Q: What sequence folds into this?
């Protein structure tokens, strides 16, 4: 038989995150590998979805999403970042932030276009670019502050550069981009006429004195910025698949048509559930979320330090990269497996976040877990010798 897989298939190989989750399940470990938050879903969100099913909101919605959800997203965005988006023409609800990014790349990038990605990166950003035929160009952040300079950007730009991805707060580093850094990126994007794709899915997971800033709010950046976010993390509904793109109407229509082609629409009653949450939950919900996750971060990072796995304390999101150079093994994967087999706690090998060997001394833990599960993981990590 002469049949073979497509050239494109290699950009969606089994991810290290999925591999570790499978091994974790096999040995009945605690899964701190995958970014699945198992904290409670707000009642308003649950009841909103249940009511919607009862009311018959079970058929296809407009490809851009239920009008009530788009309106609620517009209100939320105005409230939190001061930016106004027209629910009719500038908001596309998709199958999670993942679906939103997929459609945006399909609509806006051509094969061979280069897109700058800060490293360590979130692997889906790379695979999604590659699925569109685009080429990721890596810009390494300097550990431990995860800093970069305007000069670093100049080193990676070429005549083929078409965009840059800004993930703030970032997975896996926990970096929250400062206003100064965003302004550097804005100047750069303007100079080279680039799209700025922002992934702001962790916008409400920001700790201490750090503040999340939406890139689109920067002066003059509205038209070139494609803002992606969603409710998977904020409402602990990763399985519902509700995310969205916010951007100028000039881009939104084509992104919406791709959304129609690939997903038709996001799940109808779940869109309604999330809309209820956006309408009914007040400021305190989002504040309490950050406070609760900061407490988890602090407890978990203290435990890592005690276990001799020095943590890079994250300013946002809910992951922590830990230095595992003291753990036996030649690669990050061997070290992550050692931790899983000795302590029963799964993590992701650092190599999953780098295109070269620089992640081998690190693993990533996710601390978005119920306190009892986190406590058990903390106890188990102290068993590592
Ligand atoms: N973006 C980042 C940076 C993530 O870490 C994740 C999930 O881990 C996602 C997007 C996925 O979001 P969604 O569930 O809305 O597709």
A:
């Amino acid at each position: 038989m002469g049949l073979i897989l497509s050239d494109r298939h290699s950009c969606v190989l089994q991810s290290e995150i999925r591999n570790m989750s499978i091994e974790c399940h096999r040995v009945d470990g605690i899964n701190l590998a995958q970014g699945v938050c198992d904290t409670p879903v707000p009642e308003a969100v649950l009841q909103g979805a249940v009511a919607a099913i009862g009311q018959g909101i079970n058929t296809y919605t407009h490809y851009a999403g239920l009008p009530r959800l788009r309106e609620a997203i517009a209100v939320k965005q105005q409230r939190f970042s001061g930016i106004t988006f027209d629910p009719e023409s500038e908001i596309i609800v998709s199958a999670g932030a993942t679906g939103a990014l997929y459609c945006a790349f399909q609509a806006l990038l051509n094969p061979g276009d280069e897109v700058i990605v800060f490293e360590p990166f979130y692997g889906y950003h790379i695979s999604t670019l590659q699925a569109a035929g685009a080429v990721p160009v890596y810009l390494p952040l300097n550990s431990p502050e995860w800093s970069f300079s305007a000069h670093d950007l100049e080193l990676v730009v070429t005549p083929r550069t078409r965009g840059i991805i800004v993930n703030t707060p970032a997975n896996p580093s926990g970096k929250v981009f400062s206003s100064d850094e965003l302004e550097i990126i804005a100047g750069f994007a303007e100079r080279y006429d680039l799209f700025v794709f922002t992934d702001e899915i962790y916008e409400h997971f920001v700790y201490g004195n750090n503040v999340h800033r939406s890139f689109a709010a920067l002066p003059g950046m509205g038209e070139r910025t494609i803002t992606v976010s969603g409710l998977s993390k904020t409402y602990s509904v990763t399985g519902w698949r509700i995310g969205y793109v916010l951007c100028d109407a000039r881009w939104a229509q084509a992104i919406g048509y791709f959304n129609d082609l690939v997903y038709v629409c996001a799940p109808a009653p779940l869109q309604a559930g999330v809309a209820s949450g956006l309408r009914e939950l007040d400021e305190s919900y989002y504040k309490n979320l950050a406070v609760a996750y900061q407490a988890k971060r602090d407890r978990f990072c203290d435990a890592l330090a005690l276990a001799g796995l020095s943590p890079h304390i994250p300013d946002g999101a809910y992951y922590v990269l830990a230095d595992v150079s003291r753990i036996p093994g030649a690669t990050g994967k061997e070290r992550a497996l050692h931790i899983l087999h000795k302590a029963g706690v799964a993590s992701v090998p650092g190599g999953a976040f780098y295109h070269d060997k620089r992640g081998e001394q690190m693993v990533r833990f996710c601390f978005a877990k119920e306190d009892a599960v986190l406590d058990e993981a903390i106890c188990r990590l102290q068993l590592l010798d």
Observations:
- The chain has two domains: 7-41+284-384, 57-280.
- Residues 110 and 190 are 20 Å apart (CA to CA).
- The radius of gyration is 20 Å.
